[in-house]
């Protein structure tokens, strides 16, 4: 086969591969077709890689093989992490994606410097690719570190932070413009990279744990855009298409997360959430709450027709999802309708709570979105809140002075009875007092989520044995 | 070698972005975590770009940098697909274990 014919074959293979990638995302629309999605994407990737290796200009297979073997050796253990650690794995993976883009951009710059292929357009795109790739590389690492608690997950702020951050980025962009004007000024390339790496660290510094789902989505979009830029540099339509798909998913998830927290995107990036307003909480001091025992809770739920469980990240931290599943089994056996109401920002990345519940074998048709469950709340007999706080705080609907005012919440307070499992009356992560705990229809179950749930389940099974 | 002019590249980018937005809007919220790991894996098609740079022969530093990129993308490719498959296998509609 002539080189030209071979090249046409390769380009056609890329077209097939891009089609299969799009179909893969299409099939993610429901859990029933989702397994087909992975098969389709794997096939697409295999076609793309084989076609690329067959290209006439590829002659040096040795380094590719070594790097691919090492990458596989690291990739397999990374796919076996516990599902509570999926958010940090995702951060790491975005970091690697950004790194790959920055490395290829830099490599291509030096190759063109040797061959004399540098044009202002090319150096402009390469500069952007290096900036975005580097900031995603360190940003993703910082996110992974915060999610895994290797570094403090609270927000770290200092005076003039935004000024410092933006000047790091500003200088990098200015040097990029200089490189467009003087394409062969190779000394600026490493400086751009270092500035962008530093900016990635600085950008993540002020971001606290509650904003992680949003930031992980942003990084997803950045990783996608850096892949697009790589595609433009390498004149490869498959890379542009796949990068755009990744970027679009990051963008949509960011929007979903920001809406679910009722915050504009700029506010997440530039307005550290950590500093909780101190007011408001003091007024609530002398109020009383009603508490209940696990036996009361077991009785209430077993006599209900419909029970809704609202899980929060506290449930995952306490590793209580398997106890929740036992409770679900016991109640279902008694003919109680049990659903799980999942808030979009519950957990540490978009959709995290659903994965954790699915892992503990809860059928996915019992996992209900906030918007679908809220209209039914007045008909619910018992709501059980496990380790969730802000997402059920009615102040978001009623108190315009509350920092979370306007945030969509699960209307737990509208149910006939509310049970809240909580360690103590300390306000949660955001430091905002929760009206729900003082409501007349609320009963508090104090203690560790896992221990309390075990006690409730024991009551139910004991009752079954006695009967 | 055929070259790709910038405007064609931008056209494809524009169209692919809209296709991406339309398709991903339909993704079930249940599956947002697997979606993110799947798109991470898909964007590791960057391995193609890295191969194109390494494969053309040994040019010293650029080849080393691109080999590191092959390593980083392969890691994403392998772990991304494996973990997506693992997570999706957990989404079951009815009890199967009871038997």
Describe the model.
With 467 residues, chain A is an alpha/beta fold. Chain A folds into three domains: 1-80; 86-275, no CATH class; 282-466, TPP-binding domain (Rossmann fold), CATH 3.40.50. Chain A has helices at 3-26, 34-53, 62-78, 86-115, 120-147, 161-181, 188-204, 212-233, 237-261, 265-270, 294-302, 313-317, 321-333, 352-359, 370-373, 395-398, 449-466; strands at residues 306-311, 337-342, 367-369, 382-386, 417-422, 442-446. Chain A has a six-stranded parallel beta sheet. In chain A, helix 16 links the parallel strand 4 (382-386) and strand 5 (417-422). In chain A, helix 6 (161-181) runs antiparallel to helix 7. Chain B is mainly alpha-helical and 99 residues long. Helices cover 70% and strands 0% of the residues of chain B. Chain B has helices at residues 6-25, 32-43, 46-54, 61-88. In chain B, helix 2 packs antiparallel against helix 4. The model of chain B has no long low-confidence stretch (mean pLDDT 90). At the A-B interface, helix 1, helix 2, helix 3, helix 4 and helix 8 of A face helix 1, helix 2, helix 3 and helix 4 of B.
What would a concise description of this structure say?
Chain A has 17 helices and six strands. Chain A has 467 residues and is of the alpha/beta class. A six-stranded parallel β-sheet of chain A has the order 3-2-1-4-5-6.
In DSSP terms, counting alpha (H) and pi (I) runs of 4 or more, how many helices of chain B?
A: 4
Greatest interface by residues involved: A-B, 114 and 85 residues
Largest sheet descriptor of chain B: none
Structural class of chain B: mainly alpha
Helix content of chain B: 55-70%
Low-confidence stretches of chain A: 273-284
| Mean pLDDT reading of chain A | 89
